[in-house]
Amino acid sequence: MNWNQELSNSLLWIAKAYGLTCLLFVLTVWALVRLTSWGRQFWQLSGSYFSLRRSAKPLLGLALILLLTLAGVRLDVVLSNWSNGLYTSLQQLNESLFWSFVRIFCILASIHVLRSLFSFYVNQSFSIHWRAWLNEQLLQKLLQNDSFYRLQYLPQRSDNPDQRIQQDVSSFVSSSLGLSMGVVSSLVSTLAYTLILWNLSGPLHLLGVDIPRAMVFAVFLYVLIATVLAVKIGRPLVRLNFLNEQYNANYRYLLVRLLEYAESIAFYAGEKVEGMLLRSRFGQIIHNNWRIVFRSLKFQGFNLIVSQTAVVFPLIVQAHRFFSKQITLGDLMQTSQAFGTLHDNLSFFRNAYDDFAGYRAVLNRLSGYCDSMQEAAALPRPDIRSDGTRLALENFSLQAPDGRTLLEQVNLDIASGSALLIRGASGSGKTTLLRSLAGLWPYSSGQIIRPQQGLMFLSQKPYLPGGTLRDALYYPASAPAAAAQEAAMVLQTVQLGHLQGRLDEERDWSQTLSLGEQQRLAFGRLLLNKPAIAFLDEASSALDEGLEDAMYRLLRQQLPATTIVSVGHRSSLLQHHGLQLQILENSRWQLASTH
Ligand SMILES: Nc1ncnc2c1ncn2[C@@H]1O[C@H](COP(=O)(O)OP(=O)(O)OP(=O)(O)O)[C@@H](O)[C@H]1O
């Protein structure tokens, strides 16, 4: 081997291999996208990321990763030839040659370190950008058109969208890159090392037959047999690992529920039942863990035997040629190393089979997520038109998801600044009517007339975001920086003056404040946001009648122009509302003045 020309030889090798690999890579991706369902799923998820019209960076990044992968394969081959030369120099007791090989090693090792670090950086940067882009796409799908809420109305919705965004996006990116580059690197490396082994290999005399280039055939046969046996022994592990994930998820879910419903469980003294359930779920994990351990003992035992045999097997096959001086010590050692590398490369395809099954599951889940979001966005919406601050319903009918009619042919027009109370039996459709007015409910007909902006909906249990009490008070607006006085005053007005000093305290306020305090905080939101129309769905149910009365008086005093639509059962609410919509049986209704 001519080490003086190795640099130019290697560059030429990389250039040729790169051209050919790029061409084959593009053709393979094109064929997979056209011919396979998972290829189409991949393209549906990420095709536009690689579109040149959007940006050239992803394709350039991928091209660089491919180049670095091939450079890595070439460097391995050069190091393999180097080790051949080094052992030969030792065998020949040629000290000057030995030292020149040490110098060559310093250069090769430096290139190896730099290439590895650069390759790591490029791979990571590529993955992070891809993940960020895909995360944004999925988030947009979730947040647009109220899909995160309307998902629940789909007959078959995607499970755990949170897990899709947080976990599957990351696995999708790393598996796409890992599997594709793994295949490229293993294929190119297999070709390169088969060539090395081909040149080192001699005929083998077996049972009276001469097998030419026996070593090459031996390694392929060896790996084939090992693969078949390993798949047989290792296959149950796939299911056991799947069960492991499932059992752990179940256990985690129970723990989360215990903490979420801590108060109710504590009041019921339910820790004994919960403890039994938790222990039995944990028992499943441990039982499965032991099955994994025993199966792994068999699997790893087999793999260790295979890899240990792979160390001596090529030496045994080549020993005769070495002792009869047909090959050098370097050739012998390189044979062993090439055999090992080929063994690893071919084993990649065996391991990749399981990784690929996992990858397809990720693709299915992500595609299912995208389909669900599309269906949620396509669900029907109430027909909403705006006409100043007017609030009215025209020929409006409301249905439940099972097709039952909840309300039929409602016609009403509520003057700006007036107040309507909606009453009716439990399950008659009061909250659903508010959902329709908000534009969230898919099953209605007729027309809703209301402004597009300036609406506020308060539910029985107000949502309090994580963060400071000030953030919770201004939600969904963001707290203005220069309005410390305003927030404190509003707290005092809604009889939460004792919390004034804690406005900037960060904690989980929904766990800290009583339901009555949370409801008064929500009244504070109304005072700050000054909506044109306020919808209150049992928003004062946790307040005593005195406090409820005070809150409604406050609303009327401070927001005289705001139209109020309340849902509630108490007759004490009637005094604050000029109109009452009573929902009767059989989807009938009655509108009357309360005075
Ligand atoms: N997401 C949903 N999926 C299926 N059915 C639903 C859904 N939401 C509401 N319903 C059904 O629609 C009907 C009306 O429910 P709604 O919550 O509007 O009643 P309500 O009058 O507000 O009751 P309550 O006074 O008990 O709060 C009920 O029969 C309920 O079961």
From TrEMBL:
<feature type="transmembrane region" description="Helical">
    <location>
        <begin position="12"/>
        <end position="33"/>
    </location>
</feature>
<feature type="transmembrane region" description="Helical">
    <location>
        <begin position="97"/>
        <end position="122"/>
    </location>
</feature>
<dbReference type="Pfam" id="PF00005">
    <property type="entry name" value="ABC_tran"/>
</dbReference>
<keyword id="KW-0067">ATP-binding</keyword>
<keyword id="KW-1003">Cell membrane</keyword>
<dbReference type="GO" id="GO:0016887">
    <property type="term" value="F:ATP hydrolysis activity"/>
</dbReference>
<feature type="transmembrane region" description="Helical">
    <location>
        <begin position="177"/>
        <end position="199"/>
    </location>
</feature>
<feature type="transmembrane region" description="Helical">
    <location>
        <begin position="211"/>
        <end position="231"/>
    </location>
</feature>
<keyword id="KW-0472">Membrane</keyword>
<keyword id="KW-0813">Transport</keyword>
<dbReference type="InterPro" id="IPR017871">
    <property type="entry name" value="ABC_transporter-like_CS"/>
</dbReference>
<feature type="transmembrane region" description="Helical">
    <location>
        <begin position="59"/>
        <end position="77"/>
    </location>
</feature>
<keyword id="KW-1133">Transmembrane helix</keyword>
<dbReference type="InterPro" id="IPR050835">
    <property type="entry name" value="ABC_transporter_sub-D"/>
</dbReference>
<dbReference type="Pfam" id="PF06472">
    <property type="entry name" value="ABC_membrane_2"/>
</dbReference>
<dbReference type="GO" id="GO:0005886">
    <property type="term" value="C:plasma membrane"/>
</dbReference>
<dbReference type="InterPro" id="IPR036640">
    <property type="entry name" value="ABC1_TM_sf"/>
</dbReference>
<dbReference type="InterPro" id="IPR003439">
    <property type="entry name" value="ABC_transporter-like_ATP-bd"/>
</dbReference>
<keyword id="KW-0547">Nucleotide-binding</keyword>
<dbReference type="InterPro" id="IPR003593">
    <property type="entry name" value="AAA+_ATPase"/>
</dbReference>
<protein>
    <submittedName>
        <fullName>Putative ATP-binding cassette transporter</fullName>
    </submittedName>
</protein>
<dbReference type="GO" id="GO:0140359">
    <property type="term" value="F:ABC-type transporter activity"/>
</dbReference>
<feature type="domain" description="ABC transporter">
    <location>
        <begin position="391"/>
        <end position="594"/>
    </location>
</feature>
<keyword id="KW-0812">Transmembrane</keyword>
<dbReference type="InterPro" id="IPR027417">
    <property type="entry name" value="P-loop_NTPase"/>
</dbReference>
<dbReference type="GO" id="GO:0005524">
    <property type="term" value="F:ATP binding"/>
</dbReference>
<feature type="domain" description="ABC transmembrane type-1">
    <location>
        <begin position="59"/>
        <end position="358"/>
    </location>
</feature>
<dbReference type="InterPro" id="IPR011527">
    <property type="entry name" value="ABC1_TM_dom"/>
</dbReference>
